[in-house]
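To illustrate the input format used throughout this study, we show a single complete record. The first block contains the structure-token representation of the backbone; no residue identities are included at this stage. The design step must infer an amino acid for every position from geometry alone.
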């Protein structure tokens, strides 16, 4: 059974301002506690879709006891995100390239315009780890860590939006 979660975050700003702040958050990571520079492997456009491929590490997301039970290569993953600028929807998948059946992490984020001063984003994420005995623990740990990262990202976007007021 996969670990799944949904999360809705509200912003007191137009959706376009939220998306602009989202893009700006990595301009200077030293300004934001807990934010790390992204390791972008590729970024290109396919019509209205921005495709980003980046290195994704689980090294700081799993406790040492679980890491000891997994091959070190499992901690180094690749994320492919496809952000549709027209629908304001981001679809992403994180894979373990060495053995894609071992880990399936997929999600969607919808950025929704409500009014000139209100918008929200909705996440729907699933994590499935196929590993005897420890798969469920690893799933829950990854999902929990991912949720915390989304919450931190929300705080940073809010901070950027507040500075722009």
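Output of the design step:
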């Amino acid at each position: 059974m996969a670990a799944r979660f949904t999360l809705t975050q509200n912003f007191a700003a137009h959706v376009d301002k939220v998306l602009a702040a989202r893009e700006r958050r990595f301009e200077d990571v030293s300004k934001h506690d807990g934010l790390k520079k992204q390791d972008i492997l590729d970024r290109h456009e396919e019509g209205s879709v921005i495709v980003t491929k980046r290195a994704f590490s689980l090294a700081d997301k799993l406790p040492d006891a679980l890491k000891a039970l997994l091959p070190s290569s499992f901690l180094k993953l690749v994320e492919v995100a496809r952000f549709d600028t027209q629908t304001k929807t981001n679809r992403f998948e994180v894979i373990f390239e060495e053995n894609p059946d071992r880990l399936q992490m997929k999600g969607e984020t919808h950025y929704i315009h409500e009014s000139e001063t209100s918008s929200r984003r909705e996440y729907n994420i699933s994590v499935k780890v196929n590993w005897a005995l420890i798969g469920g623990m690893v799933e829950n740990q990854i999902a929990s860590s991912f949720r915390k990262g989304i919450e931190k990202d929300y705080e940073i976007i809010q901070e950027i939006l507040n500075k722009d007021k």
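Structural context for interpreting the output: Residues 3-163 form a domain with the Alpha-D-Glucose-1,6-Bisphosphate; Chain A, domain 4 fold (CATH 3.30.530.20). Residues 135-163 form the longest helix (29 residues).
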